[in-house]
Fold:
Amino acid sequence: MAEVVLEDVCKRYGGGDLAVDRFSLVIRNSEFLVLVGPSGCGKSTTLRMIAGLEEISSGTISIGGRCVNDVPPKDRDIAMVFQNYALYPHMTVFENMSFGLKLRGVPKAEIEERVREAAEILGLGALLRRLPKQLSGGQRQRVAVGRAIVRKPKVFLFDEPLSNLDAKMRVEMRGELSRLHRRLDATMVYVTHDQVEAMTMGDRIVVMDRGAIQQVAPPLEVYQRPANLFVAGFIGTPPMNLLRGRVAWAKGKWLFRYGAGEVSVPEAWGPALEPFAEREILFGFRPEAVGAAEDASEEDASIRGVVDVVEPMGAETFVQLVTFDSSRVVARVGADCLFVPGSEVTLPVDLGNVRFFDAASGCAIMNGG
Structure:
């Protein structure tokens, strides 16, 4: 396996449009790295530049310590798994998996050994004589992965490989790919627009928007400590709640004041917030930080408003609350918590893990707790 290094990589198209902007990142040896972001953010273009399928406009890409800017895809020692499987319909599973090895002149006995080994890893042993049309979507995707495994590349590249599968199959394939990564101890770069895939599979997540990196961190850190408003809104379902207001020193303590009320800010956070006094900022907190009223304590902030929508989800319930300045807050509460649309409620907010953002720049000011 190998380390992949991208230094100030840019991609401009003919009209001057910047698809990827100064992308710099070290993908560690044996790491499972996920590029995630909305459509058009540049994640697939970045992956294709690593593969050599897209020329870079500037910057350098190195794989295993070797600059590959001018190296053709076939000589980069990478294997790519595509969204649409890209299987040859007239070839059997065995033939699809072995085709690339035959083109490289690998001895027949070694081809047989590699294919059988990959088939065993992926549970394809009984399907090697079948044609792609005789397989389910999940089986076809495993064949595409198997074709990559037999290459024994330095780096595996996955371009939204699960997007054509149904919800149940995506869950199963996520687990299979995670187990495969542990078994192969391989360097894997995975592109997806699905934040659930990113959160459950990646060692680290790269959140992208408009061709630029917004944050690089392990999944839990991205979720709990978003670097800016874009990450706060993109990662998490429902996304982070955001209240717009100002922080001020009053009544002998720091207060965050928004249209419908105020929240006491722990004194320890004062030094970070003081430079933003009387400037517009945003107070961010995740839906699970909002609890039932009877759980309130003196240390909790509280949000008052009217229950608008109640969404039972089985083990939990989402409650949409409209505050008295028309802000909208979503609470994730237990299934046994009963709320009636139209009723006025006061819900505590656990201040153990909140985030403040500068309204002007969108950047995080600090993280509570």
